[in-house]
Amino acid sequence: MEQVWLLLLLTIKVLSVTAQFNGYNCDANLHSRFPAERDINVFCGVQTITMKINFCTVLFSGYSETDLALNGKHGDAHCRGFINNNTFPAVVIFIINLSTLESCGNTLVVSSARGVNAYGNISVVQIGNVSGYIDTPDPPTIISYLPGLLYKFSCSYPLEYLVNNTQLASSSAAISVRENNGTFISTLNLLLYNDSTYSQQLLIPSTGLPLKTKIYAAVRATNLDGRWNVLMDYCYTTPSGNPSDDIRYDLFFSCDKDPQTTIIENGKSQMGRFSFEVFRFVKHKNQKMSTVFLHCVTKLCRADDCPFLVPICSHRERRDAGSRTTWSPQSTSGNAVITAGPIITRSDETPTNNSQLAQHRPPFQLNSVTSALISGVVILGITSVFFFVCSLTLLHRNWPNNSVLSGIRNPVFN
Predict the structure, then answer these.
(1) Per 3-state DSSP, what percentage of the chain is helix, strand, and coil (rounded to 5)?
(2) pLDDT band at residue 303, thresholds of 50, 70 and 90?
(3) Residue 302, CA atoms < 13 Å, CB-side half-sphere
(4) Partners of 295 in the beta sheet?
(5) How many angstroms separate the CA atoms of 17 and 60, rounded?
(6) Total-model pTM
(7) Lowest-confidence range among 2-6, 10-14, 88-92, 335-339?
(8) CA gap 270, 350 in Å, rounded
(9) What is the rounded distance in angstroms from the CA atom of residue 228 to the CA atom of residue 196?
(10) Termini Cα distance of the chain
């Protein structure tokens, strides 16, 4: 009899739990518990932050999806989530648009610290942190037998990136993000253009670009919340696509700038622009063409903060060129790399050896002045010879005939 009652109680409990889950994709053996830290997943994206909460433990706690809201905004339908029952377990999904994150009470805090950044230079490094919480409403009574549910979340975005691109017409690189960690690197492109209008991307001929050709470069953000501006911190070049190449030449860093480089716009919009003149690396002296790869360390800053981060340069001095070939950026995990180049330049000098000079010596060529002088001398010489011959002919006609003076007399004259 006791076994019958025990079986009946188990059946009633199973039926109650099944009724409580109400057909949602839940497992009574796994989800008959109160929520834990593992029941929320946070995905920090470029344009949105997505939270997924285990709905089964919410149901077990006595709440529905309408009881969950962002930052206590239970009266605002835009701050609530929606159920996805196509996954196991069923989840309640909240999506925060970064362009309107404050509308449901979320906060954005940007912290700054001056120190050595990930690339070995002293700079102001910033981190943007978006945070908030999801909770259930407080009951109108003095006491409650239901647990209050509270899910806290945050996303940290480092705001400095190494931007480069191995494709000439660069495209953004998609970056997979981890829980509670995000990046905006996938929104940044490094592009090369023909002129200052930035309307036509640079096309490099197969023969390479002539030395001192002016190139216009731009670091551009696409599909990024309008509160962020692009701030180029440090741009340099290497002879290879490796941004950590031992040989590099700096275009600009803070107030130090190459004389042939002009910064056109920086920190004022979602595009940073500058120009520089094409050069060749000396290590390519035995090659007809030289390759140049461009890399930029770029920050994202809030429009209000950018003016305080742009360096104020009153006396600009060129950095020692000798120090430009010894630095290499420190490698850090999690940095996405996009590279611009190669920029191919052609050399005006073709390397030759002595044997080539001996076998392919060009014929002697006269310029126009020398040719005219030689022609004049030849004509004068021919004229002189002509007059000399004429003079001899006249003299020969006027000279007395030897045959009359010493010849035989004509018998007719006798």
Answers:
(1) 25, 30, 45
(2) confident
(3) 13
(4) 164, 236
(5) 8
(6) 0.59
(7) 335-339
(8) 43
(9) 24
(10) 197
